[in-house]
Amino acid sequence: MRLLVVGIVFSVLVLTSCTSESGTITESSSKPPDAGETLRLDPDADIFQWEGSIYKADVDWVQELELTKNELLGEIAENAENAQNPKDFQDGTASKLPIGSMIYSTNEGGLYLLAEVEGELQKYLLLAEG
Q1: Cβ pair 47, 34 in contact under 8 A
Q2: Res 31: pLDDT
Q3: What is the pLDDT of residue 128?
């Protein structure tokens, strides 16, 4: 009987410690970084936005990968090199890539995209939840 009472008291303590002062359970969530957050953390970041996601160049381990060009997805339509406001970024906007740079998918999956600039391919990594 004594063990049952201790178990009930422990359960009540655990359950009440998971609630905030208002009596509701609080949750935290994370989301992928937007252009503004990425540029605040790294003002010189070489990024672009594609299909609502931010892709970043110059990630050391990505540079070592052998990525192969797949299909043409589109091109960079706007350069916002000095933009700090995420509203300045939309699909096809880049911080460093010149307007007209072609964007390609890769045979290695959706984490990577390639940008073709003057015949050279540059590797970009999808920035996931932060």
Answers
A1: no
A2: 82
A3: 87
